[in-house]
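#struct-help
A.M.: can someone run this one for me? Single chain, 119 residues.
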Amino acid sequence: MSRPEGFGEWLRACRNACRLSQREAARRLGVSHVYWHAVEAGNKPPFADHHAGTLAEVLGIEQRLAWHVLRLAAATWRAHRAARQLRESIAAVNAELAELGYPPYKITIETHDNTPEIH
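D.P.: on it. Structure tokens below:
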């Protein structure tokens, strides 16, 4: 199995390794196939913690591991969302500052996963 980037790609790789369609995996987990697809695509947050046991059964992994993966995925989702909101806020402030003739507000955020810097 190649090294997936992010929860959606990891979920897809595990589902494919189990030879399950999105529709069948979603049915076994108890969510709609539309939601499963959105999670794999990275357009929706990962499944809630209470799905850990069932997700473990669907993917054939330990429940403890499924729980940890879901917790990490949720934290990553929140961090990326916060970074996006911060970039949007800085852009809005800088637009107003530019209109008033002031220099832009600059900030750099370093991360461990090579996420682009926030300016």
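A.M.: thanks! Residues 63-99 form the longest helix (37 residues).
D.P.: also worth noting: The helical segments are 6-17, 22-29, 33-40, 52-59, 63-99.
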